[in-house]
Amino acid sequence: MRFIVGTGSSGQGVFHVEGEWAWNLTAVNGSVGTDLSAMAAGRIALDSLEALKESADAEPLSSITPGLPIERPGKIMCLGLNYVDHIKEGGYEVPSYPALFMRCNTSMIPAGAPMVRPNCSEQLDYEAELMVIIGKGGKHISEQDALDHVFGYTIFNDGSVREYQRKTHQWTPGKNFDGTGPIGPVVVTPDELPEGAEGLKIESRVGTEILQSAKTSDMLWSVARTIATVSEFTTFESGDLLAMGTPPGVGHAKTPQRWLRPGEVVEVEIEGIGICANPVIAEEDLVATEAAE
Predict the structure, then answer these.
(1) Is 238 left (phi over 0), alpha (psi -120 to 50) or beta?
(2) Under a CB-based contact definition with an 8 Å cutoff, are residues 249 and 115 in contact?
(3) In terms of DSSP bridges, do strands 100-102 and 124-125 run parallel, antiparallel, or are they unpaired?
């Protein structure tokens, strides 16, 4: 199944998506909630949704303003180095253990929202990534059982302010600027994709300029292996997010370096899931716009 969280003519809610049309399930049954938390936790049975859809009115998918798939995830875990060619372009050794970091909620924005280049640096970079939404929680999850803990897959752009990422050995500042982490808009359940979402084309671009292009099968750590590894030290909870790292072609590794510029629209596309597109805006322009509202 395919879902989008957002606001349409029928109000705010969780929409069931088929092709270019969407049905607001929340408008029919409020217990669905206004994000995917209830579904991810299993409080809403997926096999009951067809009946809800029959009672809802269809509206164009293009008319829905996306929201965050999970409004307040408990954890946003991210792999920093998971494609060998990206590891090499960054000047790192191929690690024997995944390079992990965390993002905070204030860094996350929905698809379509402005991606903010901060006043303090022009080095806003893009990173096309597969994002996993955890369904069933757990700790010490085996690799064999790990995919049973996946609720769905979506798209993530791990916007990174490289100047601040590289100020220390810890990447936290550069990975957590406000408004730099677009996610969504469509979430796809595992039954609609290859096992572990492997073998999907993943690409980032600005207009006709292709920035990154690879396959998710190029990942060093698979989704199952990553879930098992991370669950050795932390308990996954329903609604947690897991970003699976980016392929080669990021801006800081290009010659000359290629930073995102205000006025551009950056797109991340993953085969079988969709496109996450966001305009880039300078922080001072965002502040001016908010002040005028």
Answers:
(1) beta
(2) no
(3) unpaired
Q: Are 228 and 142 in contact (CB under 8 A)?
A: yes
Q: In 3D, which of 159, 135, 133, 157 has the Cα closest to residue 148?
A: 135
Does the N-terminal peptide bond of residue 185 adopt cis geometry, omega within 30 degrees of 0?
A: yes
φ, ψ of residue 181 in degrees (nearest 5): -120, 80
Nearest Cα to Cα of residue 25 among 16, 12, 36: 16
- Helical spans, DSSP H, in the chain: 25-28, 37-40, 49-54, 84-89, 162-165, 223-230, 283-292
pLDDT tens for residues 85-142?
A: 888 988 888 889 999 999 999 999 999 999 999 999 999 999 999 999 999 999 999 9
pLDDT in tens, 180-235: 999 999 999 999 999 999 999 999 999 999 999 999 999 999 999 999 999 999 99
Sheet strands (E) in 142-208: 150-157, 160-161, 181-183, 186-188, 201-206
